[in-house]
Amino acid sequence: MGCIHADYEGKPVIAIINTWSEINPCHSHLRQRAEDVKRGVWQAGGFPVEMPAITLGETFQKPTTMMYRNLLAMETEELLRSYPVDGCVLLGGCDKTTPALLMGAISMNLPAIFVPAGPMLRGNWRGQILGSGADVMKYWAERRAGTIDREAWMQIEEGIARSAGTCMTMGTASTMTSVAEVLGFSLPGASSIPAVDANHPKMANRSGRRIVEMVWEDLKPRDFLSRASFRNAITTVLALSGSTNAVIHMLALAGRAGIKLGLDDFDELSSTTPVLANLRPSGKYLMEDFYYAGGLSALLKALASHLELSCLTITGKTLGENISPAEIYNSDVIRSVDNPAFSSGGLTILRGNLAPNGAVIKAVAADPALLKHSGRAIVFDSHNEMNARIDDPALDVDANSVLVLRNAGPKGAPGMPEWGNLPIPQKLLKAGVRDMVRISDARMSGTNYGTCVLHVSPESFIGGPLSLLQEGDMVELDVRQRQLNMQVSEEELSHRRAAWRPREGVYPRGYGKLFLQHIRQADEGCDFDFLEGTAPIPEPEIH
Ligand code: FES
Fold it and tell me: Is pTM, for the whole model, over 0.90?
């Protein structure tokens, strides 16, 4: 390695777990950020070692990055366990990388700092500002409707991702890096800094310095994580109108910390938490605007009356102390509790005979006219069947129909892909329809919008009620009453239940087989059953 004894003797060894990869455009700057972290570690008297870990690149990985979240969590934990390190800096940001790195670090419980990759710059096309994901869906619908041509579509593609960094709407990436910050894992303000802003490498440098201090202070994740800090994070996700994916990831994170958290916590807080971030896909602005407006610290200060400010963080200070210097510089981007973007509805938990263990909808990203709706179900048994039928002119569908996709849950797809934003049938697009009620046991990209009921639990693949729904059944959605029901008698359902037969799992061996055997349901966080909890793992005896 070319190191002399004095380089490392008596110094904390700091692992820099880096999810950089050429296949992941969101992390294309993380090689350099690892160097920025190292500079900080050296300056503070530590010994840095960069350790690559599997990347979870949202844009290319099949069937879905969610399939591999737990694998990265395992890799993180075992890297930290099996090598002689004293603390770690976690580099990630593209959707699942954040929860995965944190899950592993919480389980290992060594001093840890999370350095978020940071959002991309705003997109641009013919003078219009483009937002990741949300504008892909918007213009793809126009392309399918025939209102824009191929050349315009290619220009949009070239204009929508202008720099390194994660999606710059309030999608899963920015939601989860905000969660990491509120839980106390990142330096104040870190999650809002654009990836290519000069303040980003400075933040990485400061994180390198701080982790060395944390090792000497022996400040570990489970010293600062608490039920109160998780409820703060839920409140923040609601105030950001963040990604529905956060529900699953936060349940998994809490499970690793041994903290009891459930859908009821989301349900309780959702009715009282105002949406303060005016960010796409539910609002107007993008992450770059959010940063200039004061960033997450400013939003948290505006939200202070809804937060438990005494929670400890990696700075060694409380959340309240961290956010006290923050100011709002643009009150249209970051609203006050007296002038919220929406009074509530960041996320809503639904229950009923279609989802006895819960489902999720982001009501503020839906057509308000559809939030109380009943319609005939059009049922697709698989993603392939949906693709084959959705644009068939003979499909018996109208704007009031309810589109249903099943076998897309944790075990069904498998991996619970982001298929929950079912495409509007082409003939309805051409007639001007842009939103419909859609229901699935899948997830949806946090950058997407529409009246999409997601995470229906238990999933259809294991015989949840969604598996009993038949084409033509009436389905009722009532977001205000938090209800999702099918109008089918209990007697008829029991006949259908008796006739239901499970499908075969698709993996005869390998990681996929392990996944199918141990994955939990969405309302439990989709962790592997054998990774939950805080039971101590004994180190092997060395003779
Ligand atoms: Fe990586 Fe969206 S594709 S954050």
Answer: yes
